[in-house]
Amino acid sequence: MFELTLTDLQGQTQSFSQWRGKVLIVNYWATWCHPCREEMPGFSRLQDKYRDKGVQFVGISIDTADKIIEFQKTTPVTYPLLIGDISVMEDSAKLGNTRQALPFTAIFDREGQLSATKLGRFSEPELERQLNELISR
Predict the structure, then answer these.
(1) In a domain, 83, yes or no
(2) Is there a domain that residue 5 lies in?
(3) pTM of the predicted protein model
């Protein structure tokens, strides 16, 4: 995961290596995915709450930058949103998303090891429990 480099909404490349040493939550999503849109406000709240404890959320969308920017007008997001393509989505199968469905979330510990994955909407309390466990290690 940390060798991956994607483009942000401003067209700048962002390497996942910049988040080494953090608890990293990578969420694969799309603007047309209703469960994706439902979980993002909770992700933003958790990002704000745990930012100072070494937690970093990153969203990877298979949409265009224009669609994501339009989405953010109604649903502000407090973590980086990056643009992937179908090959990035296919790579999510290596993390356990064998159905190639959305939303899909992968959680990595501070050592960069895959700690948990979830296909489908992640509830805020469920995710917060997992974050607290990883932060306390």
Answers:
(1) yes
(2) no
(3) 0.94
Active site residues: 33, 36
Task: Please count the structural domains in the chain.
Answer: 1
CATH of the domain at 74: 3.40.30.10
Do you find a cis peptide bond into 103, omega within 30 degrees of 0?
yes
Strand order in the sheet with 13-15: 13-15, 5-8, 81-83, 55-61, 23-29, 104-108, 114-119
Angle, CA 86 vertex, CA 30 and CA 34 arms, to 5°: 15
What is the full DSSP assignment across 97-137?
Answer: -TT--SSEEEEE-TTS-EEEEEESPPPHHHHHHHHHHHHT-
In the chain (137 residues long), the average pLDDT of successive 10-residue segments reads: 90 95 96 94 96 96 92 93 90 90 95 95 94 90
